[in-house]
Each structure stands twice: as structure tokens, then as C-alpha cells.
Specification:
- The chain has 174 residues and is an alpha+beta fold.
- It is 40% helix and 15% strand.
- Strands 1, 2, 3 and 4 form a 4-stranded antiparallel β-sheet that branches.
- Strand 2 and strand 3 form a beta hairpin.
- Helix 3 crosses helix 4.
- The chain starts with 19 loop residues before the first helix and ends in a 13-residue tail after the last strand.
- The mean pLDDT is 78.
């Protein structure tokens, strides 16, 4: 009886390949690095898609602050005033209108500051009065651009300096 012979042909060995789990691990690591570096960088740059406008615990929407440039004005009693104003925009459209018209908003704030005298803007009540006047004027401006009104106008810094006139000159009174 003949014995069966085994055919001993060798199969060519396949080159080693990376396992699927190694590729997934690399993808997760890259995604994690992108999140750790990308999100803070986007927040620092001010990317609008990173802004969170979710409701707070009290049900009120979070403030959407627009900070103005420093506003310099001369009050109607001749004092020099410098103010830093921050505006709480109602929504993205209001914010976009304020940012697109920065020069006009700065002039509006300057005129509003100049309409007061030093004694009327001193103290907490004076600051509140000035804030309400600025908000009223800004809302009139925004109404002309079909934008929702601002919620609040905050005066962060207000500096006033007495401007003395040279001898013999009188300040112009309105």
C-alpha cells in the first residue's frame, strides 16, 4: 500500500501590517490634541461659533458683551471725560450691527457723554442716569438698523478732569 505524500509547499508570508486598533489609537490621540489646543485657541481669537449663549440657571440668557473703544468727550460744562463702555447685545444680529458700525457707535457715545455735565454723572445715581441715556440712544440707533435693542450698557471706567481756561477767557456756554 502506498503511503500518501504530503505536499509541502510553502505559502509566501504576508508583510506585517498595522493593526486596526493602532490606527484608531492614533486618530483618538490626534483628535484629543486638536481639542486641547484648538478650542482654547478659537476662544482666544474670538471665533463666533465658540460663543455659548445658553440660558443661565435663572432662565435668563447669558450676556453677549461688546466692548467699545475708549470714548473721550468734553461735557457741556467744559470738563474732559474719558469712559470705557461695555454693551450687552441682545443677539448676534445686534452684536453684528454694533461691530460693523464701531465708528458711528463711538461717536454716538461721545455725543451722549458730552450732553451731560460733570455734576450730573457723578456718583452711583449719575452713572445710572448716564447708562440709561446711552442705552436709549443706542436703541434708537439700532431701531434704524432693524436690530433688537441692547439689554444693558455698563460704564466700566469713567475719568473726569477739570479743564481750566486761561485767564481772560470764558468757556462757551450753551
Amino acid at each position: 500500500m502506498a503511503r500518501p505524500t504530503l505536499d509541502r509547499t510553502r505559502l509566501a508570508a504576508a508583510p506585517p501590517t498595522a493593526q486596526v486598533s493602532d490606527r484608531v489609537w492614533i486618530a483618538y490621540a490626534l483628535a484629543g490634541i486638536l481639542l486641547v489646543i484648538g478650542i482654547p485657541a478659537a476662544v482666544a481669537v474670538g471665533a463666533s461659533w465658540v460663543r455659548f449663549s445658553e440660558a443661565t440657571k435663572a432662565g435668563k440668557p447669558t450676556p453677549n458683551w461688546v466692548r467699545s473703544e475708549a470714548v473721550h468727550a468734553t461735557t457741556n460744562d467744559g470738563d474732559s471725560v474719558k469712559a470705557q463702555v461695555t454693551i450687552d447685545a441682545t443677539d448676534g444680529h445686534t452684536r453684528a450691527v454694533l461691530e460693523a458700525n464701531r465708528t458711528q457707535v463711538a461717536l454716538l457715545l461721545q455725543i451722549s457723554l458730552g450732553a451731560h455735565d460733570r455734576t450730573s454723572i457723578q456718583g452711583a445715581k449719575g452713572m445710572q442716569r448716564l447708562s440709561k441715556d446711552l442705552r436709549r440712544r443706542l436703541n434708537e440707533f439700532l431701531d434704524g438698523h432693524n436690530a433688537p435693542p441692547v439689554r444693558e450698557v455698563i460704564i466700566q471706567d469713567l475719568f473726569s478732569a477739570r479743564c481750566d481756561t486761561p485767564r481772560g477767557h470764558q468757556p462757551i456756554r450753551r
